[in-house]
Amino acid sequence: MTSVTKLFDEGEIARRVAELAGEIAGACPPDLMVIGLLKGSFVFLADLIRALDRAGRAPMVDFIWLSSYGHGRESSGSIRLIGDVPAGVAGRAILLVDDIADTGRSLAYARDLLAEAGAARIWTCALVDKPCRREIELAADFVGFTVEDVFVVGYGIDYAEKYRHLRYIGAVD
Ligand code: IMP
Ligand code: MG
Description:
Number of strands: 9
Bound molecules: inosinic acid, magnesium ion
Strand order of the largest sheet: 4-3-2-5-6-7
Mean pLDDT: 95
Radius of gyration: 15 Å
Strand content: 25-35%
Structural class: alpha/beta
């Protein structure tokens, strides 16, 4: 049986998301387009855009669906785009959001897609950063929480499609 150890509870997540929105509102232009990587970022993104609203911003929102993970804990290593790059990216300031920065490949891959599509400026944001796992050079501009080499779940983040519903972020053993 897999067990989950709580790392960050609902209150800590809400406070950190509000802080992040403040940091983003201070650093990024008002005409920001927020693009989340599916599926892991959907809960975080839902809270982040409302926190940005509280911070006085009115971001556009869209998604990119990348597939890299099988049903295990290790990335398959090859990333695929499912569907299309959102329309209207050309010339825009983009905040690219993922649940986790692990090897860094997903954020880098999506960032390159957006750059190719003509984005004017791209910032990256990861709710959870695992710098010790990085395999390519990628420093997220905004980070919610930094963790060691643990496999995290909850708040949208899955392990084999389970645990996305948890209100907290935990580590599975
Ligand atoms: P990267 O491309 O290796 O940086 O991995 C990023 C993606 O891998 C994230 O979007 C997650 O979907 C998945 N991932 C990486 N680490 C974890 C984890 O600890 N829990 C669940 N998914 C993870
Ligand atoms: Mg993901």
